[in-house]
Amino acid sequence: MKLQADKFEAQSITGYGPGWIAVDQQNHEHSLIVGARGLLQEWNCARFEDLTPAHFEELARLDAEVIIFGSGARNRFPPPAWLKPLMEKRMGLETMDTHSACRTYNILAGEGRNVIAALLLE
Questions:
Q1: Domain of life, per the record (predicted)?
Q2: CB-count burial class (<10 Å; 0-12, 13-18, 19+) for 1
Q3: Strand pairing of 92-96 and 20-23?
Q4: What b-and-e string marks burial along 86-119, b requiring 16 or more CB atoms within 10 Å of the CB?
Q5: Residue 77 in contact with residue 51, Cβ under 8 Å?
Q6: 30-119 belongs to which homologous superfamily?
Q7: CA separation (Å) from 119 to 3, 23, 87?
Q8: pTM score > 0.85 for this model?
Q9: Where are the domains positioned within the chain?
């Protein structure tokens, strides 16, 4: 039984390692926002400690069904109050380490979901 599509239609994360993330075979060495529908932009934060409520307000302005937040080398959670803009728009946010977030993003994007990954690359 074939479980994967013959062709991956969405933008995909093709590699991840210390200090880099590859999106469609292009390496990036900074935190990123990646969307299944083609969004690719630098996310202006280098460390978890640099995050502010404005980072999550930026995510709330995006068109997404769910946001996967890669919190760096380990799983860390933003303060719940910072997620209010997302909750007001009924946008889901899942938090995990960045490596897991890359894999999860690819699965959801491959299913045709409107997913965005906000990935901290420390």
A1: Bacteria
A2: exposed
A3: unpaired
A4: beeeebebbbbebbbbbebbbebbbeeeebbbbb
A5: no
A6: MTH938-like (3.40.1230.10)
A7: 27, 12, 20
A8: yes
A9: 30-119
Q: Specify the amino acid at residue 103.
A: R
Q: Which two tokens stand for residue 8?
A: 């991956």
Tell me the two tokens of residue 80: 């719940």
Give the other-Cβ count within 10 Å of 24's Cβ: 13
Which residue, chain included where needed, has tokens 């995990």? 96
Each of the 122 residues of the chain gets a pLDDT tens digit; together they read 233 444 567 899 999 999 999 999 999 999 999 999 999 999 999 999 999 999 999 999 998 999 999 999 999 999 999 999 999 999 999 999 999 999 999 999 999 999 999 999 98
Kindly tell me the number of DSSP H helices and DSSP E strands found in the chain: 3, 8
CB of 67 within 8 A of CB of 86?
Answer: yes
